[in-house]
Structures are given as C-alpha cells and as structure tokens.
C-alpha cells in the first residue's frame, strides 16, 4: 500500500471478526488496521491519510458509543461506522445523531459495510481538504497587520471605503492602500473572493 492509501481502522474484541474484516478491507485495496480495544487504538500513531473507523458498540471497558463521544471531545475527527450484534433502535438513533455514518447489525452484508466505508473515507477526504484551505487562510491572515485585519473585517462586512475611513479616522486614500495590501496578502482575486475567505475563517474558528 502507498503512503496515501486510505486506512480503515477496526475496533472489535472478536479476533475472528477482526481477521475477516481485515481481509475484506484489503480485498478492495484499502489499508486496514485492527484493534481489540479502544486503548490499543489510541496508542497507535495514525498516519496522515484519509481514514474512517469501524467500531463495535459493545467493547470491554468504554462502549463504542461512549468512545464516539470521547473522540469528539478530544478532537479526533474520524467518520464512524458502528457494527453490533446487540443493537436496538434508540442505540442506532443516538449513534447517528452523534454523526455516525452507518449503524449495521451483525451479520451484515459485506457490500453494505464497504459502501459505508467508501462514504466515510470520502467524507474524511472532504474534511481534510477544507481543513487545509482554512489553515492556508489562517497563515495569510496571520501576516496581515492589525490595521489590515481591521479593514478586512469591515470590508467583508459590506462597509464602503468612505465609511471605513470615517470609523477608523483615516483618509479614504489610506483605506484604499490597506485594502489593496489585504487583497494581495490574502491572495484574493475579487471582493467576493475575500468575503468567502472571511466566512471560511469564521467557520473554522467556530469548529476549532
């Protein structure tokens, strides 16, 4: 497998099932890592590639549902697919409301699990792309002076140069110069582009 091959993590305390899932996942040219417990999984240094987690609901110690909640609290943002031999409707509703991709009762069809895995990996790819964009924007924003940041926030909230100049007690010419610097440093091609960047920065701050 290449260093960029997506990884499917499996946490299940049944050795036979772990082996079967490992074979299934590798048969479709994905990388698989299996663990008997959540502690084993947490000790593993995960590679920086798209991934998802196949998680048994009932495990020794922390249950799969509780582990899903703990992952969210600690910032481990992996799409989760639950598998269980003891599921019920309230349990599945709780898992899906918490963001799980799928809740599959055992025995499940191989294709149903693979479909959920493909969906989870694509969702993680999207999240990683969005995170990379926000990190780049944060880097650009970090290079603005405090005055440029002020002006960017006012420009992207819809204020015209004349109003910004009055609010900041600057000349309109000075505002225009700062505005050009902001556009160049943020690599914005247009005002609409800059507004989208500001929205992404705001969304990224809320989810950080």
CA-atom Rg in angstroms: 23 Å
> Which segments are poorly predicted (pLDDT under 50) over 5 or more consecutive residues?
none
Sheet bearing the most strands, described?
5 strands, parallel
| Alpha-beta classification | alpha/beta
| N to C succession of SSEs | EHEHEHEHEHHHHH
What's the number of helices? 9
Q: So, CATH architecture of the largest domain?
A: 3-Layer(aba) Sandwich
Tell me, what's the shape?
elongated
The percent range for helix content is 55-70%
Quantity of strands, as a count: 5
CATH superfamily of the largest domain: Response regulator
Number of domains: 2
If you had to describe this structure to a student in words, what would you say it looks like?
- This protein has two domains: 7-129, Response regulator (Rossmann fold), CATH 3.40.50.2300; 143-207, Orthogonal Bundle (Arc Repressor Mutant, subunit A).
- Helix content is 59%, strand content 12%.
- The chain starts with 6 loop residues before the first strand and ends with a helix.
- The longest helix is centred in the middle third of the chain and has 33 residues, at 110-142.
- It has a five-stranded parallel beta sheet with strand order 2-1-3-4-5, with helices on both faces.
- Strand 1 (7-11), helix 1 (15-27) and strand 2 form a beta-alpha-beta unit.
- The chain has helices at residues 15-27, 38-43, 64-74, 89-97, 110-142, 146-156, 161-168, 172-186, 191-207; strands at residues 7-11, 31-35, 51-56, 80-84, 102-105.
- The chain is an alpha/beta fold.
- The protein contains nine helices and five strands; from the N terminus they run E-H-E-H-E-H-E-H-E-H-H-H-H-H.
């Amino acid at each position: 497998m290449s260093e960029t091959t997506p990884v499917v993590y499996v946490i299940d305390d049944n050795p036979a099932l772990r082996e079967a899932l490992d074979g299934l996942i590798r048969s479709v040219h994905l990388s698989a890592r299996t663990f008997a417990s959540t502690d084993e999984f947490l000790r593993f240094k995960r590679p920086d590639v798209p991934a998802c987690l196949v998680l048994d609901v009932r495990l020794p110690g922390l249950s799969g549902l509780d582990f899903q909640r703990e992952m969210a609290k600690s910032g481990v943002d992996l799409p989760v697919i639950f598998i269980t031999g003891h599921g019920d409707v309230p349990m599945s509703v709780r898992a899906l409301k918490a963001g799980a991709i799928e809740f599959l009762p055992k025995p499940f069809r191989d294709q149903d699990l693979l479909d959920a895995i493909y969906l989870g990996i694509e969702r993680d790819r999207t999240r990683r792309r969005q995170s990379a964009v926000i990190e780049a924007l944060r880097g650009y924003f970090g290079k603005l002076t405090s005055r440029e940041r002020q002006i960017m926030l006012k420009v992207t909230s819809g204020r015209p140069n004349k109003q910004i100049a009055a609010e900041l007690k600057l000349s309109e010419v000075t505002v225009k110069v700062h505005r050009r610097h902001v556009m160049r440093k943020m690599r914005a091609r247009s005002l609409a582009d800059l507004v989208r960047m500001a929205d992404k920065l705001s969304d990224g701050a809320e989810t950080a």
